[in-house]
């Protein structure tokens, strides 16, 4: 079964644009979880462009209350700065069920590539170990064709396939050409004992074709498209539509 973790970064983008507290991130989280979403994701950027450390702590508590997964994403190599204690320190405070490590930088508009495990595995290894010691499941952001055996060797439990290129291909009618590389990477991950997550620019339009072609996707984290679609249909209805794509019985147990 594939579960849905709703990424709430974009609610915080709107909120921060006026400097107040609306739209309210926690209300949005409640709405998603009450609609049946299986978890909540945020990816606080060190430049605080959307979700902040205080949001992370509040969402950690909220998701614990629901008994659902909190997925915290971030770059473990980004140095701490005012308002951002660093990814590991944040995980120590929030204790997310899943920590997804992503090699991003401030200059990037959004995440746009996975790790190069041949280059990064050695420096990732102690961080993965530290996160596991905190009780977090560790997932590593990965491109198609990534050396997933190295990700498994350093103790990761999962990889998250970076689906941006798939979404672009889907939009231009060339999804069929893009999907085999995702399916191959998912199979390679499973063969070395890794679970497979997927995310970035997934949407109601492109999700089903991805899940049809790529085996054993355990979780999708979806934010940008979902929050945009919710402007038209409402957040509750939009989450339910995604759950319907995932399967007729999909949804958290608290619904
Ligand atoms: C890790 C990832 O794929 C991203 O999708 C990310 O969570 C989105 O971050 P932004 O909302 O900052 O673009
Ligand atoms: N890990 C991907 C994620 O959380 C959401 O990405 P997007 O749907 O905002 O592109």
From TrEMBL:
UniProt catalytic activity: 3-amino-2-oxopropyl phosphate + 1-deoxy-D-xylulose 5-phosphate = pyridoxine 5'-phosphate + phosphate + 2 H2O + H(+)
Record's keyword annotation contains Transferase: yes
Positions with a binding annotation for 3-amino-2-oxopropyl phosphate: 7, 18, 201, 223-224
Positions of the catalytic residues: 43 (proton acceptor), 73 (proton acceptor), 200 (proton donor)
Keyword set includes Cytoplasm: yes
Residues annotated as binding 1-deoxy-D-xylulose 5-phosphate: 45, 50, 110
Pathway(s) this gene product operates in, as recorded in its UniProt entry: Cofactor biosynthesis; pyridoxine 5'-phosphate biosynthesis; pyridoxine 5'-phosphate from D-erythrose 4-phosphate: step 5/5
Residues carrying the site annotation Transition state stabilizer: 160
E.C. number: 2.6.99.2
Keywords: Cytoplasm, Pyridoxine biosynthesis, Transferase
MF (Gene Ontology): pyridoxine 5'-phosphate synthase activity
Enzyme class: transferase
Subcellular location: Cytoplasm
Main location: cytoplasm
Function noted in UniProt: Catalyzes the complicated ring closure reaction between the two acyclic compounds 1-deoxy-D-xylulose-5-phosphate (DXP) and 3-amino-2-oxopropyl phosphate (1-amino-acetone-3-phosphate or AAP) to form pyridoxine 5'-phosphate (PNP) and inorganic phosphate.
Description of how the protein assembles with itself and partners: Homooctamer; tetramer of dimers.
Entry's family note: Belongs to the PNP synthase family.
Name assigned to this protein: Pyridoxine 5'-phosphate synthase
Originating organism: Luteimonas notoginsengisoli
């Amino acid at each position: 079964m594939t579960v849905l973790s709703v990424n709430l970064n974009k609610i915080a983008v709107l909120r921060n644009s006026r400097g107040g507290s609306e739209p309210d991130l926690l209300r949005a989280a409640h709405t998603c979880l009450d609609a049946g979403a299986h978890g909540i994701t945020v990816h606080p950027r060190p430049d605080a462009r959307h979700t902040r450390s205080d949001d992370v702590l509040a969402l950690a508590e909220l998701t614990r209350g629901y008994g659902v997964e909190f997925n915290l994403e971030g770059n473990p190599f980004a140095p701490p700065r005012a308002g951002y204690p660093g990814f590991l320190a944040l995980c120590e405070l929030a204790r997310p069920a899943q920590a997804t490590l992503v090699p991003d930088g401030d200059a990037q508009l959004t995440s746009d590539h996975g790790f190069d495990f041949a280059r990064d595995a050695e420096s990732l290894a102690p961080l993965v170990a530290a996160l596991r010691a905190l009780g977090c499941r560790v997932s590593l952001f990965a491109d198609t064709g990534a050396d997933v055996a190295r990700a498994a060797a350093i103790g990761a439990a999962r990889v998250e396939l970076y689906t941006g290129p798939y979404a672009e291909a889907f939009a231009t009618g060339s999804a069929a050409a893009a999907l085999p590389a995702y399916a191959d990477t998912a199979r390679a991950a499973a063969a070395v004992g890794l679970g497979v997550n997927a995310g970035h620019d997934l949407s109601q339009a492109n999700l089903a074709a991805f899940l049809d072609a790529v085996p054993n996707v355990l979780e999708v984290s979806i934010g940008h498209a979902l929050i945009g679609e919710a402007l038209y249909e409402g957040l509750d209805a939009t989450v339910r539509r995604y759950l319907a794509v995932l399967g007729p019985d999909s949804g958290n147990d608290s619904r």
